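Customer escalation, tier 2.

The customer says the design service returned an amino acid string that "doesn't look like it belongs to this structure." They asked us to rerun it and document both sides in this ticket. The original structure tokens are below, unchanged.
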């Protein structure tokens, strides 16, 4: 276990961020959270974490960093909806770019050692030719959301090279687990759980043979702990490239929507039927990540897909409010 550190987690009241907060607290670190509660919930947050309800782009958020002088900023807050980013790229950029810069400037001022930045392996590679996709594949995002995630990595690379602030970019695949709401990149798991619990048919867009790489949120939290402490290559020499400090976080396993539906029906012991609808234009057909680099640093998914789906289903069953 590392020395106790002062950590600010943005988006810490959200689905993934709240698990990351739990993992930092379990390691004895002191945790502050910045979250505007736009999709996050107070109930997700451990009482030992101190919450500032604020926009990451606000003066209050920057002031918190100046007061706390964190060793580490772990940045999960984001506008996460691809469709919102397409409809309103300015809104997406305000949170994902200007919000990030508000924090990096304050972090630089107070000498923050490391920034852990959450990127997305589901979007930065566009339609990759190689699957599972390694970090070195061309980055060609197809949405404003994907562009902001990649831009975030470039901005942090600037801070690293010019101001000496370390960072690690974690490029997640489709994350699922307890506290997930139906709107994120792997929202299908939560949507299916809710429909099963309501006794409603599972809606599938297209033929259901499109595949994703589903990674459990507790394994993602463990990846964040590793990213907080791992040794990084020097900036000079081999260490100057974006991909040197970027790590895919995924299982490398391709799971089709049909297979996911089968597994969840089995977990629930319910078979309310399937409702196949027209495929959604622009949706990626296949996406899986090669996380060999992170595995080389000692990370490995701990739960099988079925075990993790079981935990997720049970959580949603216990906490649902009737919405599907
Ligand atoms: N869920 C996935 O499969 C997935 C995949 C790749 C990357 N990510 C990234 O992981 C991070 C967390 O996503 P999540 O799925 O937990 O979603 P989430 O909506 O639960 O978490 C986002 C959190 O950020 C907060 N937030 C949003 N805008 C804010 C702002 N302007 N100021 C302060 N707080 C703000 C929200 O209230 C919420 O608590 C995001 O950066 C997302 O892009 C998620």
């Amino acid at each position: 276990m590392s020395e106790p550190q002062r950590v600010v987690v943005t988006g810490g009241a959200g689905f993934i961020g709240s698990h990351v907060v739990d993992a930092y607290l379990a390691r004895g670190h002191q945790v502050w959270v910045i979250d505007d509660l736009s999709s996050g919930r107070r109930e997700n947050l451990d009482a030992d974490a101190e919450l500032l309800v604020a926009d990451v782009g606000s003066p209050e958020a920057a002031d918190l960093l100046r007061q706390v002088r964190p060793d580490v900023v772990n940045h999960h807050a984001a506008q996460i909806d691809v469709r919102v980013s397409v409809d309103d790229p300015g809104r997406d950029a305000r949170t994902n770019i200007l919000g990030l810069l508000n924090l990096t400037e304050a972090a630089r001022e107070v000498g923050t050692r490391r920034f852990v930045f959450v990127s997305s392996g589901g979007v930065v590679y566009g339609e990759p030719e190689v699957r599972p996709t390694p970090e070195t594949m061309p980055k060609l995002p197809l949405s404003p959301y994907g562009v902001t995630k990649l831009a975030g990595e470039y901005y942090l690379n600037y801070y690293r090279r010019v101001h000496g602030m370390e960072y690690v970019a974690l490029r997640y695949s489709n994350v699922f687990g307890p506290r997930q709401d139906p709107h994120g990149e792997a929202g299908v798991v939560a949507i299916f759980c809710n429909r099963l619990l309501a006794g409603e048919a599972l809606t599938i867009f297209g033929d259901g043979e499109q595949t994703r790489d589903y990674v459990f949120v507790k394994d993602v939290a463990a990846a964040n702990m590793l990213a907080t402490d791992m040794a990084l290559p020097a900036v000079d020499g081999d260490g100057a490239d974006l991909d040197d400090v970027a790590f895919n976080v995924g299982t490398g396993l391709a799971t089709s929507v049909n297979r996911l539906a089968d597994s969840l029906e089995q977990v629930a012991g319910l078979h309310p039927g399937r409702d196949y609808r027209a495929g959604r234009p622009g949706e990626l057909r296949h996406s899986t990540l090669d996380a060999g680099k992170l595995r080389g640093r000692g990370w490995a998914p701990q739960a099988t897909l079925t075990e993790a789906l079981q935990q997720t289903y049970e959580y949603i069953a216990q906490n649902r409010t009737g919405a599907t």
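Tier 2 assessment: The sequence is consistent with the input. The two ends are 41 Å apart (CA to CA). The chain is about 40% helix and 15% strand. Sent an explanation to the customer and offered a walkthrough call.
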